TrEMBL record:
It comes from Anaeromicropila populeti. GO terms for biological process: mRNA catabolic process; regulation of DNA-templated transcription; RNA processing. It comes from the Bacteria. This is Polyribonucleotide nucleotidyltransferase. Mg(2+) binds at D486, D492. Its cofactor is Mg(2+). Keywords: Coiled coil, Cytoplasm, Magnesium, Metal-binding, Nucleotidyltransferase, RNA-binding, Transferase. Belongs to the polyribonucleotide nucleotidyltransferase family. Involved in mRNA degradation. Catalyzes the phosphorolysis of single-stranded polyribonucleotides processively in the 3'- to 5'-direction. Residues 623-691 form the S1 motif domain.
Length: 694
C-alpha cells in the first residue's frame, strides 16, 4: 500500500508517492510538482565492483518527449542519446549527492529520473533533483542525507524561488543551490552581472528554503525509510600505511610532490610506486590496494603542507596566481582566435561567425527555448595531460565545461539586432593542470573581441580551492588551484564575471558542505583574482572589440521590411528569393518580424541583394528610376525585369524620343536599360518609359 506526502513549495504543491510504482528498486519516489511528473529511482548492486578505487555512481535524467506531447523527429521515432540539457541536469544531481555516500563504498549505484509530464511552470529538473534525494533517503543504500535543492531567480530586484516560465524569461539570475541540514553543498549559477553581495544573499536565501524541504523529507523517511544495509568496506589497512611510511617517510613524500612541474611530480610518484611494488611483491593483498594507499598518503601530505605549513606544492603563496599570458590572432584565416595560459593550463579558443539561420535548433522539453545563436564547445584531448587514448567525442565533463563557459559569456553578447550573427566559440585544451573551464572563459573573451563581436564587457574566470581541518573554522581557501590541489582538496569553486558582477558560478565539493564564511571568502578572492586577470593580462592584449569583423568572416547587412511584403521577397515556392541568391551569391534570412539579413563575403554583391530587396518591397510610385533587363519583346513593346519576379512594360512609343518602327531595332533580349515608372496601366501592370529618364 502506497503513501502520499505533500507540501507547498513556492506556491505550488509538491507531492511524493512512495510504494506506488518501482517497488523493486531500492528506493522510488513518484514525484508530482504541479503537473510535472518525474519517477526517481535509486538502485544498488548487492556486491562491490571488483578492481576499482572509486565509488561507481551513475546518474541519469531521461527526457521523454511524450511529456510535452511530441513525437521524436528522425526515422527512428524514439528518444535517442541524452540531450545536452539532460547531461547537465544529471551532473547537477550528481555533484551534491556523491560526497554524501560513504567514501569506501564500491557498490554500483544508479539514480534514474524519468520525466513523464512537464508543466512549464514547475521545473522537471528541480523535481528530479528532489526526487533523487528522496529516493536515496528512503532506500537501504548508505547515505548521509537528506539533501534538498532550490532554484532562485532575480526579478525586479527581488528573489523568486523555483521561478515559473514567465519569471524565468525576465530573471537576471538562474541559481541552483543544494544543501544539507547544516551547510551548502552545491552552487550552480548563470547571472546578468549580479553583484557579489547579492549573490551571497541569494545563495543563503535558497539554503533557508532547503531547510523546509529537508523537514518534509524527514517526515517521509520516518514513515517509509528502509534500514540502511551493511557493506564490505574497501578501506586501506592501517598496517599497509605504516609499512609504506617506513619505506617512504613523510619528508620524502613531501619532497616528491613539492614541485611546480606536473611532469616531474608524476615521475617522482611513478618511481615511488615502483619502489613500493618491489618491496611488497610477496603481499598480493596489499598490492591490490597499493594504488589507493599511495593516493591517500600523497593526499594527506599535500593537505598537511597547505593547511598547517601554508606551503603549496608549486611553492606559490596562498593567494598567488600562476604565471599568466594572453594572445590573439595566433590562428590565420579563422574569424577570431585567442589563447590564454595560466601556468600549465593553456586554452585556445576559435570564434566562427555565421548567419542566424545557422543557430542551433533545440528539440527538447523546454518549449520556451527552441534555438540558440551562441554555442560554446569545449574539447579536452588526452595529450593535454600527457596521456594516450582515442577520441570518442565529448563526454559529460566536456559538455559541462562548455556549458559553464557559455553561461558566463551569454550576458555580455550583443543582441541579434545589434549583431545579426550566429556565434560559435570552440575552446581547445592544449595543456591542462587545473581549471581549464575558467581559462576557456578568458580565451573566449579574447577570441570574441578579436573577431569583432561587440561584447558589452570582457569576462574573466578563476577557481578557488579549499583544504579543511577538523573544525568548521580550521580551513584555508586557495586562489587558482592546480590539478593536484583540486584532486586532494575539498572544493573547486569556479566564478566568472565582469568588473560589475558575476555571470556564472559552479561549485563542486568533496566534503559535507560549506559554511557561509568559506563561501564569502571564496567569492571575495575570486573577484580579486578576476580583476587582476582582466586589468593586467587580458585588456593590455586587446582593450576592446574590433570595430569590424575580419576579412574572412561573412559580412551581414540587415534591412527592415514590412512583414506583409515578406511573401513578395520569397516569391511563389521560393522562386524570387532563390533568384536573388543565385544572382548575387549571398545567403538571406528573413524573420517573421520582417528583419532581412543578407550575408556574404563580397560587399558589392551584398549591396546588390539589398538593392533588389528594397526594390521588391518598395511601393511603386510615378517617377521612380529602376535599372532592369529586357526579358521579352513584343510587337507593342518590351518587358523589363527590374528585380527577380518583378517586371513592367515599356510601350514601343516610350522607348525613344525618335520614332521606333520595330522594338527589335532598338532592344534585344538581355539588354540592361534604365526606366522611369509611369504608374500602372488599366490592367494593373507597371508601365515604364525609357525616353523620359532624366
Amino acid at each position: 500500500m502506497y503513501k502520499s506526502f505533500s507540501m507547498e513549495l513556492a506556491g505550488r504543491t509538491l507531492t511524493v508517492d512512495v510504494n506506488r510504482v518501482g517497488a523493486q528498486a531500492n528506493g522510488a519516489a513518484f514525484m508530482h510538482y504541479g503537473d510535472t511528473v518525474v519517477l526517481s529511482t535509486a538502485t544498488a548492486s548487492d556486491k562491490p565492483r571488483e578492481g576499482i578505487d572509486f565509488f561507481p555512481l551513475s546518474v541519469e535524467y531521461e527526457e521523454k518527449l511524450y511529456a510535452v506531447g511530441k513525437i521524436p523527429g528522425g526515422f527512428n521515432k524514439r528518444e535517442g542519446k541524452a540531450s545536452e540539457n539532460a547531461i547537465l541536469t544529471s551532473r547537477v544531481i550528481d555533484r551534491p549527492m556523491r560526497p554524501l555516500f560513504p567514501k569506501d563504498y564500491r557498490n554500483d549505484v544508479t539514480l534514474n529520473n524519468m520525466v513523464m509530464s512537464v508543466d512549464p511552470d514547475c521545473s522537471p529538473e528541480l523535481t528530479a533533483m528532489l526526487g533523487s534525494a528522496i529516493a536515496v533517503a528512503i532506500s537501504d543504500i548508505p547515505f548521509d542525507g537528506p539533501c534538498a535543492t532550490t532554484q532562485v531567480g532575480l526579478v525586479d530586484g527581488g528573489f523568486v524561488f523555483n521561478p515559473n516560465a514567465a519569471q524565468k524569461a525576465v530573471s537576471d539570475l538562474q541559481l541552483t543551490v543544494a544543501s544539507t541540514r547544516e551547510k551548502v553543498i552545491m552552487i550552480e549559477a548563470g547571472a546578468n552581472e549580479v553583484p557579489e553581495d547579492k549573490m551571497i544573499e541569494a545563495i543563503f536565501a535558497a539554503h533557508g528554503v532547503n531547510q523546509e524541504v529537508i523537514k518534509f523529507i524527514d517526515t517521509i523517511v520516518a514513515e517509509c525509510g528502509k534500514e540502511k544495509h551493511s557493506y564490505a568496506s574497501c578501506a586501506v589497512p592501517e598496517e599497509l600505511f605504516a609499512a609504506i611510511k617506513e619505506i617512504v617517510p613523510p619528508e620524502q613524500m613531501e619532497e616528491a610532490v613539492f614541485t611546480d612541474v606536473k611532469q616531474q611530480r608524476e615521475e617522482n610518484m611513478k618511481k615511488m610506486r615502483e619502489q613500493l611494488e618491489e618491496a611488497f611483491a610477496e603481499k598480493e593483498e596489499w598490492l591490490a590496494v597499493l594504488g589507493e594507499a599511495i593516493y591517500q598518503y600523497e593526499k594527506k601530505t599535500v593537505r598537511k603542507m597547505i593547511l598547517k605549513d601554508h606551503k603549496r606544492p608549486d611553492g606559490r603563496a596562498i593567494t598567488e596566481i600562476r604565471k599568466l599570458a594572453a594572445e590573439i590572432d595566433l590562428i590565420p584565416r579563422v574569424h577570431g582566435s585567442g589563447m590564454f595560459t595560466r601556468g600549465q593550463t593553456q586554452i585556445c579558443t576559435v570564434t566562427t561567425l555565421a548567419p542566424l539561420s545557422d543557430a542551433q535548433r533545440i528539440d527538447g522539453l523546454d518549449e520556451a527555448e527552441t534555438s540558440k545563436r551562441y554555442m560554446h564547445h569545449y574539447n579536452f584531448p588526452s595529450y593535454s595531460v600527457g596521456e594516450t587514448k582515442p577520441s570518442r567525442g565529448p563526454g559529460r565533463r566536456e559538455i559541462g565545461h562548455g556549458a559553464l563557459a557559455e553561461r558566463a559569456l551569454v550576458p555580455v553578447l550583443p543582441s541579434e539586432q545589434e549583431f545579426p550573427y550566429a556565434i560559435r566559440t570552440v575552446s581547445e585544451t592544449f595543456e591542462s593542470n587545473g581549471s581549464t573551464s575558467q581559462a576557456s572563459v578568458c580565451a573566449s573573451t579574447l577570441s570574441l573581441m578579436a573577431a569583432g563581436v561587440p561584447i558589452k564587457k570582457p569576462v574573466a574566470g578563476i577557481s578557488c580551492g579549499l583544504v579543511t581541518g577538523e573544525t568548521d573554522d580550521d580551513y584555508i581557501v586557495l586562489t587558482d588551484i592546480q590539478g593536484l590541489e583540486d584532486f586532494f582538496g575539498d572544493m573547486d569553486f569556479k566564478v566568472a564575471g565582469t568588473p560589475d558582477g558575476i555571470t556564472a558560478i559552479q561549485m563542486d565539493i568533496k566534503i559535507h558542505g560549506l559554511t557561509r564564511a568559506i563561501i564569502e571568502e571564496a567569492i571575495r578572492k575570486t573577484r580579486e583574482a578576476r580583476m587582476y586577470i582582466l586589468n593586467d593580462i587580458m585588456l593590455p592584449c586587446i582593450s576592446e572589440p574590433r570595430k569590424e569583423v575580419g576579412k574572412f568572416a561573412p559580412k551581414i547587412v540587415q534591412v527592415k521590411i514590412d512583414p506583409a511584403k515578406i511573401g513578395d521577397v520569397v516569391g511563389q515556392r521560393g522562386k524570387t528569393i532563390n533568384a536573388i541568391i543565385e544572382q548575387t551569391g549571398v545567403k538571406i534570412d528573413i524573420s517573421d518580424e520582417g528583419a532581412v539579413s543578407v550575408c556574404g563575403t563580397d560587399a558589392a554583391m551584398i549591396q546588390e541583394a539589398v538593392r533588389i530587396i528594397k526594390v521588391i518591397t518598395t511601393d511603386f510610385e510615378e517617377g521612380q528610376i529602376f535599372e532592369g533587363k529586357v526579358i521579352s519583346i513584343k510587337d507593342f513593346g518590351a518587358f523589363i525585369e527590374f528585380a527577380p519576379g518583378k517586371e513592367g512594360m515599356v510601350h514601343i512609343s516610350k522607348i525613344s524620343k525618335e520614332r521606333v518602327n520595330h522594338v527589335e531595332d532598338v532592344l534585344t533580349l538581355g539588354d540592361k536599360v534604365k526606366v522611369v515608372c509611369l504608374g500602372k496601366d488599366k490592367m494593373g501592370r507597371i508601365s515604364f518609359s525609357m525616353k523620359d529618364v532624366k
